[in-house]
Design goal:
- There is one protein chain.
- It is built from 17 helices and 13 strands.
- The chain is α+β, with helices and mostly antiparallel strands and 384 residues long.
- Strand 3 and strand 4 (38-46) form a beta hairpin.
Length: 384
């Protein structure tokens, strides 16, 4: 029984530290550590070995007989495409697995750092169970089918000794217990690859008004927030604005989008007042529809119609003149209930976005599309 750095006993590995000439083995460089008084190992596998060693049993088993969630096959193609589309800058985090075998660790030295670094020998007959990362494993397998040359690249592996189903299930629970997905807004802020994210960040960076109005980190705005919209809301609205608009660089698309949003802001007095700090953002969000994501999205869809007709901002300015006549007050339930509001609360469903878009289009004298007309007709019938 060996001891940890604080003097506590460490559970010994079950493998012998002797050569096994009669056993065929995989040998990897590795670091040995101690966690929960048990040895574990950090190593790297070539990508081509991941599908071979980490087999996934597609046979349906009851949840209590599995050590991981069932594979969501719908997630795999997108993850594989991410690897294939970004061969020079993709990032995949480590896989965590348990191995059921008599593994052998040969340290470089007798103690200290050299005692923790060495060669990890794993019998080819070993059984591996992925505790965290089965979707990454499936994505790697799919990507390798299209680009076998990626097989020489590596992925880090954290290996624990398998001590039974119950322990593996507990490891899965513990590994996912505190996993929190980052907010959509923060993901957009840190995304330097997707064009839509680059466009909206360009808009905010180049505009003092939008820098004041946009929350750059959180998805939800508190009553005391000084911001009117989240970056995620602006991203969705700008995506609707530029839908099917092609042959534009990121800079040109950002300039086009900013011109439109600046013209809209000129017609919404309360946005300007928040920017000038004459009213609080919380009061405006409380009292007006135009300061919620549904309205921003609807305005983006209206702008897309204008953009398809002309890219001349002077024509947009004339078309948007009547925007200032809309009564955006939430108290105007005669107009907004059933459209932007359901039972007095803002609704973000696609149907409600369309009904809100219809109000703006009719005010500006813009013809509704066939789908917008269909939804409008259903709404009117429901009211009668």
């Amino acid at each position: 029984m060996s001891t940890a750095t604080d003097g506590r006993p460490v559970e010994e590995s079950r493998h012998p530290v002797v050569a096994r000439p009669d056993v065929f083995e995989y040998v990897f460089p590795a670091i040995r550590g101690v966690q929960a008084q048990r040895h574990f190992y950090v190593t790297m596998f070539p990508l081509r070995l991941v599908p071979r060693l980490f087999l996934f049993d597609e046979e349906e088993l009851q949840a209590n007989l599995r050590a991981q969630r069932s594979l969501n096959k719908a997630r795999v193609p997108e993850m594989a495409r991410y690897i294939l589309d970004n061969p020079h800058n993709y990032v995949f985090s480590a896989l965590t697995a348990s191995v059921d075998a008599d593994i052998r660790f040969d340290p470089l030295g007798a103690g200290g750092a050299e005692g923790r670094i060495g060669l990890l020998a794993i019998p080819m007959s070993a059984r591996f169970v992925i505790n965290d990362g089965q979707h990454r494993r499936a994505a790697i397998e799919q990507a390798l089918r299209e680009n076998p040359d990626m097989g020489d690249e590596s992925i880090p592996i954290v290996l624990f000794l398998d001590i039974g189903l119950e322990r593996c299930q507990q490891m899965f629970t513990d590994l996912n217990r505190y996993a929190i997905r980052p907010s959509r807004t923060l993901t957009i802020l840190y995304d330097h690859r997707e064009n839509g994210a680059r466009i909206v960040k360009n808009i905010v960076k180049s505009s003092a008004l939008w820098a004041d109005l946009i929350e750059m980190e959180r998805n939800n705005l508190s009553a005391r927030s000084r911001k009117l919209f989240t970056l995620s809301a602006l991203h969705g609205a700008t995506k609707a604005l530029l839908d099917s608009v092609e042959e534009l660089t990121v800079d040109d698309a950002a300039k086009l989008a900013r011109n439109y949003w600046d013209l809209v802001a000129e017609k919404v007095t309360e946005w300007q007042l928040v920017h000038e700090k004459k009213v609080t953002a919380g009061d405006v969000r409380r009292d007006f529809i135009h300061s919620h994501g549904i309205a921003l999205h609807a305005l983006g869809k209206v702008g897309n119609t204008l953009l398809r007709e002309s890219r001349d901002s002077r024509k947009w300015r004339r078309s948007l003149t009547s925007l200032a006549t809309i009564d955006w007050s939430r108290a105007n339930s005669q107009l907004w209930e059933g459209r932007a509001l359901i039972g007095g609360k803002v609704s973000k469903s696609s149907t409600n976005v369309t009904l809100t878009t219809n109000v703006i289009k009719k005010t500006l004298g813009i013809q509704l599309s066939p789908e917008e007309m269909r939804i409008e007709t259903m709404y009117e019938r429901g009211r009668s």
